[in-house]
Amino acid sequence: QKEVEQNSGPLSVPEGAIASLNCTYSDRGSQSFFWYRQYSGKSPELIMSIYSNGDKEDGRFTAQLNKASQYVSLLIRDSQPSDSATYLCAVNPSGAGSYQLTFGKGTKLSVIP
Amino acid sequence: GAGVSQSPSNKVTEKGKDVELRCDPISGHTALYWYRQSLGQGLEFLIYFQGNSAPDKSGLPSDRFSAERTGGSVSTLTIQRTQQEDSAVYLCASSRDMAGEQYFGPGTRLTVT
Which of A34, A44, A81, B104 ranks highest by number of CB atoms within 10 Å? Predict the structure, then answer.
């Protein structure tokens, strides 16, 4: 069973702080990693993708990947109340023809004004 | 440009009835995926279409579920003889090609009474 694990939270951070969201995955051969943001009652929205070890920055968001540790994280700098949502980690597992994503259950982030 | 669209946005049906859910992917995207999200559960993969290749049906939970993709574009997910446990949000996603970033539609909320 290929699994993706996230702390369910809630993770509460004050406005302006850095929010750190973490994800581990079981399939060592996984190649593609994604972070989605999901507001209550809405569908997931892609915010970051990462494919290589290291950091990838996009505005206030930084994704970090460590394949040796099977760990991917998302940092949100200068957190805003509008960042309050559930963040889903998704992994494209290895294997022939395996293009569907395996999702974690998400971490609920609350940014306190 | 236009994103993934789904219809209907909400569907209430009686147990035992058949339902059809529609997905219109982003223009030019060759890969299309169906997932479902139940309360308290993560996103669960159902089926994947890539171009004219045979679909990956490995996630369909029972033979009551089927899906088609006509002309490499619009897809229909059909659930026959619906059960209460089929109540969930059914999400469609598309990507430019296999293994690419997946973009989700707004979903169809299915309630089986």
Answer: A44
User: How confident is the model over A39-82, as pLDDT tens digits?
Assistant: 999 999 999 999 999 999 999 999 999 999 999 999 999 999 99
Q: pLDDT per residue over A15-25, tens digit each? A: 999 999 999 99
**Who contacts B72 (Cβ-Cβ below 8 Å, separation ≥6)?**
B30, B51, B52
CB of B28 within 8 A of CB of B81? no
**Contact across the interface for A100 and B59, Cβ inside 8 Å:** yes
List pLDDT tens digits, range B54-70. 888 989 999 999 999 98
Considering CB atoms only, which of A42, A101, A104 is closest to B102? Answer: A101
- CA quadruple B72, B74, B79, B85: dihedral positive or negative? positive
A83 by DSSP, 3-state: which?
Answer: helix
Q: Which chain A residues are Cβ-neighbours of B32 within 8 angstroms?
A: none
The residue whose two tokens read 């099977």 is A70
Q: Are B19 and B113 in contact (CB under 8 A)?
A: no
- Say if CB B73 and CB B25 are below 8 A apart: yes
Q: Which residues of A lie closer than 8 Å to B, measured between beta carbons?
A: 31-32, 34, 36, 42-46, 49, 88, 90, 92, 97, 99-106
